[in-house]
Amino acid sequence: MKLLGFLFVFFVMPPLGYLTAATVWTHLGDQIVVTEAKDETPVGVARSCERQDPITLTGGFKAWYLCQVDVSARGGPARTMESRGFLTPEHIGVDVPVATTHNGRNLVANSDTMRYPNLAPLALAGTVIGWILLMAAMLWSLSRKHMPKKSVGRSREIA
């Protein structure tokens, strides 16, 4: 029974913890509120969105959308990029302030439009710390120090 407990803690808990942390991050970090963009802020207009499976390495246990977005500066030429997670079908045809990362390769929500910009990293840290403490508590309960010892008696026969 202890072997099953150790296998669970070492092989099942880490993937579940990762998926839980990804769920917290995408749920709190991908919610945006559409606001007016400043003149220099690039604007994205979603053309189409495709729903992705609810259990993925990038989204955790939450279903998310992969959208084709036309991105342009106000009045500039548009280029098509992919949005992973922060846009939904409700954003199709709506101007959304966006930003890019990694030399313009990744499209992300503009930090001014995020609903919970500071809560996502704090919740993620709390989730990771909580998951580590849960795993430590499970290992402590499975350890030999904590388990009652069986007494082994020696019988001495005097001849």
UniProtKB/TrEMBL annotation:
InterPro entries per record: DUF6346
Superkingdom, taxonomy of origin: Bacteria
Signal peptide extent: 1-21
Alphabetic keyword roster: Membrane, Signal, Transmembrane, Transmembrane helix
Residues spanning the membrane: 119-140
Protein known as: DUF6346 domain-containing protein
Organism the protein comes from: Lentzea sokolovensis
Lineage: Bacteria, Bacillati, Actinomycetota, Actinomycetes, Pseudonocardiales
